[in-house]
Write a structure and sequence with these properties.
Elements: H1 2-23, H2 27-39, H3 45-53, E1 61-65, H4 71-80, E2 84-88, H5 101-114, E3 120-123, E4 135-140, H6 146-156, E5 160-168, H7 175-187, E6 193-195, E7 198-202
Parallel strand pairs: 1-2, 1-4, 2-3, 4-5
Antiparallel strand pairs: 5-7, 6-7
Helix pairs in contact: 1-5, 3-4, 6-7
Length: 206
């Protein structure tokens, strides 16, 4: 019991450190932090939609782009029970160095620990270096810049099965995400669904 309590305190301390680094990154990170606290341990709107959309189906395969501590990956596993979930994250310093590599390494260890024993595969590479196809769902939560989100959408959309669901995080709190997603959806005549903090689109479906 004491060992478990120590591990819980260890994890909480590192989460606080991670959040403090995010707070230092500006108002967008503050906005995101509020949602992370509110949604921690709970399925996000994307997860709930996919659960209903894929009801009765088994052997789902999906990918999450941008994993960090693995909190949302854990939610995807618990909510959708996929046959395989690919977790794509290069785990390098980002936000122009405001997120130091030491903090990123802590997040990586937390993710591996949190998802130990689950049907997941970690791919430590950039989003457009992951050669995956035949996916039923894809969740994009990596680089939030306009150019990066646009590139991720173009790269991952062809890798999604018909009637699959592609979506992502921080819609509304990051202008680059909003611009890239709305332009992409309009250009391809796709129906865009939004429920803070998520967005999603069904391929060849309603």
């Amino acid at each position: 019991m004491c060992f478990n309590n120590k591990m819980m305190r260890f994890g909480a301390v590192h989460r606080i450190k991670l959040w403090l680094y995010r707070l230092a990154s500006g108002s967008q990170m503050v906005y995101r932090l509020a949602f992370e606290i509110a949604f921690e341990g709970l399925p996000r709107p994307f997860d709930k939609f996919c659960k209903n959309h894929f009801s009765g189906r088994s052997s789902l395969k999906g990918a999450e782009i941008g994993v960090f501590e693995g909190l949302h990956a854990e939610s995807l596993v618990k909510t959708l029970r996929p046959e395989k979930l690919y977790l794509v994250d290069p785990y390098v310093s980002y936000d122009d160095g405001q997120m130091p590599i030491a903090v990123v390494e802590v997040a990586k260890r937390q993710a591996h620990k949190r998802l130990y024993g689950e049907n997941v595969t970690f791919l430590n590479c950039k989003s457009t270096e992951a050669d995956l196809t035949g996916l039923d769902f894809i969740y994009i939560d990596g680089d939030h810049s306009y150019e990066a989100v646009k590139m991720d959408l173009d790269y991952w959309w062809p890798r999604l099965n018909s009637d699959g669901v592609i979506g992502g995080h921080d819609f509304g709190s990051w202008p680059g995400v909003v611009r890239a997603v709305t332009e992409w959806a309009a250009k391809n005549n796709l129906e865009l669904h939004c429920e803070t903090p998520d967005w999603w689109v069904v391929k060849n479906g309603a």
